[in-house]
């Protein structure tokens, strides 16, 4: 092994790769721009949709409006996003046809006030207000929620008055209350929100970064007919493998880091967007220097695994097109374990820290949350490095096989 | 300068059996001599030349190139050889100059040496106008010149050409033919494979007829013609490999 030669090969491959527009688009544009923009779009859509539903007016048809006590009838129109219509104004009095109209979505909910409702309240017997709604419709569910919120203070007031009339304390009916105090740091909270997704996107960015250059550096040699020239040049197969391997690894690592950086910047910027105010705490990731170093430390060996596997597949393929289809399979095999960070309840332990990709996904997640246990980082790092080493060894052996190199 | 001794190369076929692509090929070639391997497609020419240029390993047999043992010391052999084939490609995104420099570095040449050789060869082949253009933008003829410079940059004593004119037009193949003559004049040992008889007649001092992985006969073009009693190489070739062309009665 001659390190000067490896460096010569590495420099040439890097130059070649950086001049390839397709590779650059895959490596940098997708993780840096496309993914954050896509996620933001989805967030905005979700937040906007939620807001819209709450702001929208829902119509509630009331049968037996005249049975409502006067003070309650005054309270109901207080919510300007609800519109109450009496059955006669609606033009239907039959209960079945009202329900059919509700199903057809002509209004959002049907409130039935029984006769003697007011008497029941006065006599302190429990009375029932029936609300018919269509659970399968967002509008209808929202209307039910609003109606509940509107009526609850009225009921509470009545209960308090009844207790007071008997000289009983108002908290009598509530033997205990639960008071939750949030002690999670904003960092940890954000890590549970968006932080669950970040490791996934970083790992996919690493894979994408490695993919494009691996295809070009392996199958591309065959497609251009340069492989024969290369093989008669006085450098060993091992030197060529390493030169190419380090190029792919570098592209992969850079893509991973860029993805982390761009997501952080994007979400910091958009956390101040009023449309996303409900989510701002969840997406406001605090990125510290030590976190960046941690991510870097774990994605380098991960990039090593990707580089060795992808380069082996790519040099085996006769054309870039064939390589593309092999690489697609790797894509599938990586996506699922990378998604572990999205699943609730999976925590790092010594066994899980040994599983490649899964361990990196969880280490990055915990790192962002600031809840990392260092012994697992070490296990994950060592395990991934060993896997990368084995993959590289087989990649080198693979490169020494004439059947692979001259498979044309 | 080159002694080839009973080279054999076996490949696995699809059914797991073994196929002899090259079956005990021996020949030699002196400095300043052009030696031609003449044979149809699939005769074993490319496999033989790939073994000589160390891109594949022989199953058995050996060769000595400029006094260096092929099997024991392939890395040294590579430095003695300039290899050019019709299928040789260039890195499209590198410029002509970068392409040549890269191989110069791989051959372990010093920066100054690379620079002076580039000056010399680019001027000689009239390439300075496109030295800084990317290879993908060059015409076929220009690409050919870049390949030639890449092949001889390290001034190897042995040149190996594997069907160098296949797929080229008249002008570009003329460049190659001229180049082969120049190598001969410079005293290099040239091995050259082709299936084009006229090329072999024009260029080769000696010819070996190769078919089914074996050398059937070897000698100067005149010797081959005399021994077969034919007056052109094509008929001589067919007679030697024992395949009579079907003639219309």
Structure description:
The complex is a heterodimer of chains A (408) and B (249). Chain A is mainly alpha-helical. Chain A has helices spanning 3-18, 21-55, 70-75, 87-90, 95-103, 117-122, 138-165, 186-193, 198-217, 219-224, 227-232, 237-271, 280-283, 289-316, 320-338, 358-369, 374-399, 402-405; strands spanning 58-63, 82-86, 109-112, 130-133. In chain A, β1 (58-63), α3 (70-75) and β2 (82-86) form a beta-alpha-beta unit. In chain A, α9 (198-217) packs antiparallel against α12 (237-271), α12 (237-271) packs antiparallel against α17 and α14 (289-316) runs parallel beside α17 (374-399). Chain A starts with a helix and ends with a helix. The model of chain A has no long low-confidence stretch (mean pLDDT 87). Chain B is an alpha/beta fold and 249 residues long. Chain B has helices at residues 45-52, 74-80, 96-106, 111-124, 140-152, 170-185, 197-203, 221-228, 233-241; strands at 2-12, 18-29, 34-38, 60-65, 68-69, 81-85, 158-162, 189-194, 206-211, 214-219. Chain A binds chain B through residues 5, 8-9, 12, 15-16, 19-20, 224-226, 228-229, 231-236, 402-403, 405-406, and chain B through 12, 50, 53-57, 75, 78-79, 81, 83, 85, 87-94, 98, 102-103, 105-108, 150.
Number of beta strands of chain A:
4
Helix content of chain A: 55-70%
Strand content of chain A: under 5%
Structural class of chain A: mainly alpha
